[in-house]
Amino acid sequence: MRVLALLLSSLAASVAQAAPPVGPRHVPSPDWRDQIIYFVVTDRFADGDTRNNDQGAGEYDPGRKDRYSGGDLAGLTSRVPYIRGLGATALWLTPPVANQWTDPIGGYTGYHGYWAEHFKKVDKHLGTLADYRRLAATLHGAGMYLVQDIVLNHTGDFFGYRGGWDAADPTRFYTRNTKAKPVAAPSQSPFNLNDPRIPGHRRAGIYHWTPPVVDYTDPVQELTFQMSGLDDLNSANPRVRLALRDSYGHWIREVGVDAFRVDTAFYVPPDAFADFLFSRDARAPGMLQVARETGRRNFHVFGEGFGIDKPFSQTSAVKIERYMTGPDGQPLLPGMLNFPLYGTLGDVFARGRPTAELGWRIGNMMKTHARPHLMPSFVDNHDVDRFLAGGSVAALQQSLLAMMTLPGIPTIYYGTEQSFTEPRGAMFARGYGSGGRDRFDTSAPLYRFIAEASALRRANKVLSRGTPAMLRDNNAGAGALAWRMDWPEQPKAPALVVFNSAERPALLDNLETGLAPGTVLKGLFGIQGTPADLVVDTRGRVTLTLGPRSGQVWQAGAQSAAAPPASTALNLEPLSASAVSDDFIVQGTAPGAARIQLVVDGALEPVQAVDVAPDGRWQARVDTSAMVDPAVQHSLVAWDATRGTASAGQRFRVEREWRLLADIADPGGDDQGRSGRLLYPTDPSWGANRQMDLRRVKVSASGGALRLDLTTAKITTVWSPPNGFDHVAFTVFIELPGQAGGSQLMPNQNGTLPDGMRWHRRLRVGGWSNALFGSAGASASHEGTPLANAAQVVTDAGSQTVSLILSAAALGGLQSLSGVKLYITTWDQDGNYRALVRDTAPYAMGGGDPATEALVMDDTPVIVLP
User: Fold this and answer.
1) How many angstroms separate the CA atoms of 208 and 154, rounded?
2) What is the 3-state secondary structure (H, E, C) of 618-633?
3) Residue 441 — φ and ψ, nearest 5°?
C-alpha cells in the first residue's frame, strides 16, 4: 500500500502541473461529506497580475504583515492545479468584496477582505468580476468547487465612539473615520446610511450605534456592539436582511459560488440565518432558493463560531449547535466550523495532553451535533497560531490523519503543506514572509503526505461518511488512541484507526475491536509506512506495540483467517486500593515465563523488567513520582513481550500534595519594560487594566512536576480567549541543573536572559497559544525545538491568577526540582509577540527603540529553586 501511496503522490505532483479545462459557471452540488477544502488568504497566496497590487492609498507594502502583499484572483486561478494535486476538492477564499483599504485609526489595512465597503463589487486589489468568474469556471473544470467567505455582521471601520458612549444619544461621542481609504463610508446602499447625526440615517437603523465589545460573555454586547471597532450591522432590520440577501445571491448567480463560509456567526442572532437561507421574498430570496435556481440542490453554508472548550467540557459545542439547529429542532446553518475539535487535536497531538481528552471530544461531537459530517474540521487557520509554531511535524501529521479519518470536512490552511510557521505569510516570492522565494513545492514532504492522506479518505467512504466508535484512549497522558469507523452501507468493512501520540513506544493491549474472531484487518495507511495486516483473536481482540508518533489505518473485508488463541496465562492480581499516596507493590503470575514487563499507562519506554520466580510468581514496585494529578486514573498491565501477551489491566489514582518552593511578590506599576519607558497600546481594552503587570509568583513542586501561579493586576477576556485570559502572554525560561548547552537568547523578544542564565526549556502561553520548546536550534528569531507535554493552563479570574503546570516528563524526567532556575516575562501576542513602535499605537506597545528594546513588559528576577 505504501507503494500505491507513493504512486498517488507522484500522480498528484504531475497533476499539479497540468492546467485543467475551463468548466461551466454553474455545476450541481457535491456530497459535501466527501469534500476536502483548501483555505487561502487571497492576498497572500499568488500574485497573478502585478498591475493591481498598489492602489495608491499607502496600503501596499509586502515587507509588512499589516499591508497588502499582492495576491489576487488571477494568481489563484493559475495555481488550481497545485491545489488539486494536494487532494483538495474545494477552494475557500477570503472575502473578495470591495474593502476599506486603510484604517488610520487602527493603523491596519483590509488586505484580508473582512472590512467590506461594497458587498457586490470585487476589490480592485484582487481583479475583476471576469477574473472571479474565470476562477470559478477553472475550479469547475477541474471537478472542484468554490467556497466564498462572507460577512453578515459588520462592514469596515467607518465610525466609532471616542471618549465615551451614551446609549440614549447615539450622536454623542460619535466620530467618523474621515481619513479611511478609498472611501470614508460604504458606497453601497443602504450601508452608506451610517451617520446618526443625520435624521434619515438614524431612522433607517442600518447600524447599531454602539462602541466595541468589552465583555463577550454579555449577549447584548456580543450581538449589538462593535467587534474590534468594526461597524455592527443591525441584523434584525428587514432592510439590512434584504440587502445582504441581494448581495450574496449575486455571487451565486453571477460567479457560480458553490458554498459560503460565514464569518463571525456568533455575533449575528440565529434567526437572521433562517431569513438569510430560507426567505421567500421574491425581491431577494434566501440563499438556498438562489442556489436551487442555478442547479445547486446541496448548497453548503457553514459559520464561524470561535469557541474552544476546556477538556471534558461542551459549552462552546452546545453554543455552536444552536446555530445549526434552532430551538424547535428546525435546521439553520447546515454546518459550523468545528472549533472544539480543533482545540483538542492541538492539545493532544501538539501539547501532549491525555488522549482521553480527544476520545471524549469525538464522542461528544457525535452526540451534540446533528450534522457532524458537514462541519469543516481544521488544525490551524488565519486567526490562530500555525500548528508548526508550537507543534512538531510528527504531531501535525497525526492531527491531519485524525482529521482525514473522522466525520467533518477536512480543511487545509494554505502553507501547511509547505511547513509554514508564519500565520499569514505569503506563498509567492514577492509577498510578506516568503523568504524571497515561491513556496509551491509539490515535492515537499508535507505536500506529499497530505496528498496521500487525502487519497486515503477519498478512496474509502467509510472514513468520510462513517461514525466513530471509541475503543481505547489514555487518561494519564500521551499514548494510545483507537477508534473504529462504521458505515451502514458497508457493514462488513469497518475501518480501525490507531495512534500513539507519545514520543516513545506504547502498548495497546487487549483492544476490544467489536469484530468477529478471525477477521482480517488489511493495512491501508501508516505515517511511518503501511502497517502489516492484523487478525482478530478468539476474544475479538488485538494487541499491538505502537511506534512513537505513529498513526495507522486498517480496514476489514471479506477475508478471514484462523483466529489466534487469546492467552490467559499472564495474570496481574487486583490492587488492594484504587487510590495511593506513594509507591506501591503489585504481584501476579506468569507460568513458563522467565521475565515480564510492568507497563504503566501504556509506556514501553522506560519499562520495568520483572523477573519471574520458578513457581511462576512475580512481584514489583510501581514508581509514582511523576504522577501528580489526583483526578487521573492510571493504568497498569503485565506484558510478556516474548509471547506477545498481556494480562488484564488494573487502574489506580495517585493523591499527592504540592510543596511550595518560592513565593515572590512583584511590585505593582513596574510593567514598563527593562528600560522603564515602555507604554501599553492605546486601545482602551488595555487602558487601566495593566494585564502585563505581574503582582505575585508562586512556585510549587510535586516530585519532578512544576506549578507556577502567576498573579497579574487584571485578568481580562476582551477577545473571548480559550485559555481564559487575553492581552498578556507569559514566557517562562527554565534552566535544568546539570545539563549542558542551553541558550541565553530570548527568541523573538530581542533580548538575552539576565545573570548568565541559560534556558533548556521555554514555555510560551497566551490566550490562544500554549507551546513548549527545547533549546536545540534556538536563535534570536527561532523558538527552538517544539516539544510535547506543554503546560496545563488553569485561569482563576477571581484571584487574577493564571496557573501553569508542567509534568516531570516536560522537564526531562526530573525527580526533583532542586537547582532549577526560572525567569518569567510578560508581553502580548498577535500571532508572534506584539510589535513595539516608537510612538504608541492602538495595538502596539510604544515608548522604546524597536531596534534595541527587549520585548519584556514585566519580569521576575532569576528564581533558583531550593
Assistant:
1) 10
2) EEEEECCCCCCCCCCC
3) -95, 105
Amino acid identity at 598: L
Map residue 365 onto helix, strand or coil: helix
Tell whether omega for the bond before 62 is within 30 degrees of 0, i.e. cis.
no
Q: Which of 707, 701, 759, 733 is nearest to 823 (CA)?
A: 733
Q: Which three cell numbers stand for residue 395?
A: 504531531
- The three-point CA angle 583-587-588 to 5° equals 155
Distance (Å, whole) CA 772 – CA 731: 10
Q: Are 414 and 440 in contact (CB under 8 A)?
A: no
Q: What average pLDDT does this structure show over 259-275? A: 96
The C-alpha cell at 812 is 526531562
**What is the C-alpha separation between 196 and 205, in angstroms, rounded?**
9
Q: Report d(CA 386, CA 379) in Å as an integer.
A: 8
Q: How far apart are CA 60 and CA 109, in angstroms?
A: 9
Provide the β-strand partners of residue 825.
731, 859
Q: What is the pLDDT of residue 127?
A: 98
Nearest to 800 by CA among 665, 694, 719, 722: 694
HSE on the CB side for 398, CA within 13 Å? 33
What confidence score (pLDDT) does residue 762 get?
98
Indicate yes or no: pTM above 0.70: yes
pLDDT digits (tens, 9 = 90+) for 728-751: 999 999 999 999 999 999 999 999
Classify residue 811 by its DSSP letter: G
**Cα 673 to Cα 96, 240, 315, 678, distances in angstroms:** 41, 47, 38, 5
Residue 6 predicted with pLDDT over 70? no
Task: Give the Å distances, CA to CA, from 241 to 148, 206, 248.
Answer: 19, 10, 11
Q: Mind listing the domains of the chain with CATH numbers?
A: 2-153+235-459 (3.20.20.80), 468-560 (2.60.40.1180), 571-654 (2.60.40), 660-864 (2.60.40.1190)
Classified as helix, coil or strand, 648 is coil
**What is the SS3 assignment for 240?**
helix
**Positive or negative: CA dihedral 211, 720, 762, 703:** positive
Instruction: Check: CB of residue 93 under 8 Å from CB of residue 44.
Output: no
Asked whether the beta carbons of 396 and 416 are under 8 A apart, the reply is: yes
Angle between helices 445-459 and 2-15 in degrees, nearest 10:
110
Residues in a beta bridge with 118: 98
- Bridge partners (DSSP) of residue 710 are 697, 802
- Give me the DSSP letters along 44-96: GT--S-GGGS--SSS-B-TTSTTSB----HHHHHHTHHHHHHTT--EEEE---
